[in-house]
Write a structure and sequence with these properties.
Strand content: 15-25%
Distance between the termini: 39 Å
Number of helices: 7
Order of helices and strands: EHEHEHEHEHEHHE
Oligomer: single chain
Length: 208
């Protein structure tokens, strides 16, 4: 029997003190379940990236890491923006597979198990895609549709209704490191890398 994969979940954080304990609780439950079912190894982890928060986000990350060996964190010297914080985490993460997800719990953490299953079956990139936008206002749905059409017209291969909730294999992240652009737009870059990909659909909720 092959060994379980090492999974690292990267979570960029900026002023998330209100939501962080619940985020950690839900993500840790997923990690524990996947370890128990031998889908991931015991050295799998969660990597919180503090993007120069001004509240107690980093102090909470330190407390959580002390209490749980699966929790780790890095603190950026200043606020660099969501994409840069996410990229920093991806490049540091040492997993066989790396999942990125935001801290606000709008994305269903339980979809991670399906992403892992697709990865084990041979998929290098698994996109988390929301099933529908019924909870959005008409204006938000209209601007979202306009955004994807504009990106398509500019040549970007964006995945409709996908944000930055995805799984990538180690070799995909290594290829991502080869891009020399200063400001990487991951939703536009990742589909261009070219490895086998799949989609996991989920219901998106309001920010916790």
């Amino acid at each position: 029997m092959s060994r379980p994969i090492k999974l690292v979940i990267v979570i960029p954080c900026y002023n998330e003190q209100e939501v962080l304990p619940e985020t950690c609780r839900r993500i840790s439950a997923v990690i524990d379940r996947l370890i128990s079912s031998r889908k991931i190894s015991r050295d799998s982890s969660v990597l919180f990236v503090d993007d120069g928060s001004k509240d107690r986000t980093w102090a909470l990350i330190e407390q959580l890491a002390t209490a749980d060996p699966h929790i780790t964190g890095i603190k950026l010297s200043r606020n660099r923006g969501h994409q840069n914080a996410l990229i920093a985490g991806l490049f540091i993460a040492d997993g066989d597979a790396i999942v990125s997800i935001d801290a606000d719990l709008q994305d269903d953490v339980n979809a991670i198990e399906s992403m892992v299953d697709r990865f084990v079956a041979g998929t290098d990139i698994v996109y988390g895609v929301r099933k529908q936008r019924k909870s959005d206002t008409a204006l938000k749905r209209l601007t979202a549709e306009w955004f994807y059409r504009m990106m398509s017209a500019l040549g970007a291969e964006s995945i409709y209704n996908h944000s930055d909730y995805r799984l990538m294999s180690r070799r995909v992240v290594e290829c991502l490191k080869q891009y020399s652009e200063v400001n990487l737009y991951l939703r536009g870059i990742v589909p261009l890398i070219g490895f086998k990909s799949d989609i996991v659909y989920y219901d998106r909720t309001d920010r916790f």
